[in-house]
Amino acid sequence: MTLALGWLWRASVLGLLAFAVFGPLANLLLWAFAIQWYYPHRLPLAYGFRYWGEVFKPTSDAFASLSTSVLIATITVVVCLLLAIPAGYALGRRRLPWRGFILLTLLLPQAFPSVAIYFNIARLFYKVGLNGTIAGVVLVHAAHGLVIAVWIATAAFAAVDEELEFAARNLGASALRTALTVTLPLAAPGLMAAAIFVFLESLDEFTGTYFVGVPDVTTLPLIMFTASLAGNYQIAAVTALILLVPSIAFMLLIERFLNTEMLAKVG
Amino acid sequence: MVLGLFAYPLLYSLLSAFTTPDGAFGLDNFVKTVELYGTDVLFTIVIVATSTVLIGIFSALIGGYLVLGTQPAAVAALKWLYRWPLFIPFIVAAQCMRTFLAKNGMLNNALDMLGLVDVSNLSGLLDWRGIIVTFVWKETPFVALLVSGAMAALDRASIEAARNLGAGSLRILVEILLPQIAGVMTVALVLAFVTMLSVLSVPIMISGGSPTMITVDMAFRVNSYSDYGVANALGFISYLIAGLAAWIYVRHNVAGQAAG
User: Fold this and answer.
1) Which of A27, A150, A238, A251 to mutate to test the interface with B (most CBs of B within 10 A)?
2) Is the CB of A210 less than 8 angstroms away from the CB of B198?
3) For B80-136, what is each residue's pLDDT tens digit?
4) Does A181 share its domain with A67?
5) Complex ipTM, two decimals?
6) A56 lies in some domain
7) In CA terms, which of A30, A160, A170, B130 is 20 to 30 Å from A104?
């Protein structure tokens, strides 16, 4: 009897939690496939892919902004990794003085309310002609992504066993060859995680693009935002789903990286 | 790069905040800010602080159950369930909530179907409550992930000892687990606090009207009036609020490094 009551209690709490977690997502999903839905109907009156067609029409704003978003995110990843690999290697090997201080300084912008920083960057970029350009948006995304990239890369390089590098050097490999054929492949999974993380951050970034991207660079989050405020809930829901799928996939993929061990190394 | 894209704009914003319209050094912007947006500053602090407290409570409960739960099936279900919003962008979370919490949203409809409320009398939760719900929904998984990780790494002997002595789960959570992970919890909550303070999309999309959060006021000041003085004064206030939180963060980080 107590056992059954215990399970009833557990099931109802978990059920409530499931509703709280998935309810908002389910509502979004309904809107993405609804063609007609108005008060007081509890569910849409007609379903279909009409708005998917509108979003994916090659001439639509949403489709154009999707390619802009992917382009910006890709360049951002390349920029961040080019900087984060050497930085992470140096920091991960703990030979640098002030290591902790450098890592903390990198984290400082994260501990700052970013809105005020962004509109001042926008004002600055406006003067030098970077406002409304892809390069300007990439710079803003990269500055933000770099912090994460350096931290993850540092943890990845710190996890590579130094003995293996010594062994390669003893067998006559040059420093560069050791780095390219031993260290880098061993750190690759962590660097991959950093790359995906930076890509997603850039894809989802809103505030920075909102100030720096106007009026010419429109990314997917901006399209979603405009559509939502204009009351085009279907368009907003479809674009939101496009942004949502990579995030969820990443969460399921990252489970293995996001264990306590990894977090302990980052800290 | 971090220096150029962070330190320089920061300095710029500080100078701008303390410059009067005729170019002299002064507090005019702050006087105007308090006059126009004093309520919004308080509103922001209340919203972010309330959300932080709720996030702390929920993540402690989730982390505690993951460590102390006796039914493996329920623990596994919770573990699978709580992480979903972790990487969902704020703007998508805001759009989800904009429909979920609306008058005709799924929440009201579900309550109505259960016979608990009548939709036609409800107005929806798209105001300060909606902002808090969205923040808690989005940030709890992050804090809970760090907290449960820290709890799982603790020595189980003290938990078993307390349990043998007859302590209930809630008591073990509050008296044994939480004191040991207080550092991690503080750091995670501070990060969540600052993140919520800087989100622009959620307050605009959930609740457009007044009072609203200062991020919205900053964007409005810049986009509609090009009034960088007042916007930067608001920015300075947000630095102050975050600075207070960051001070706690650094203190804990230094203490942690000294101990570790």
Assistant:
1) A27
2) no
3) 888 888 888 888 899 889 888 887 788 888 887 787 777 666 677 778 888 999 999
4) yes
5) 0.80
6) no
7) A160
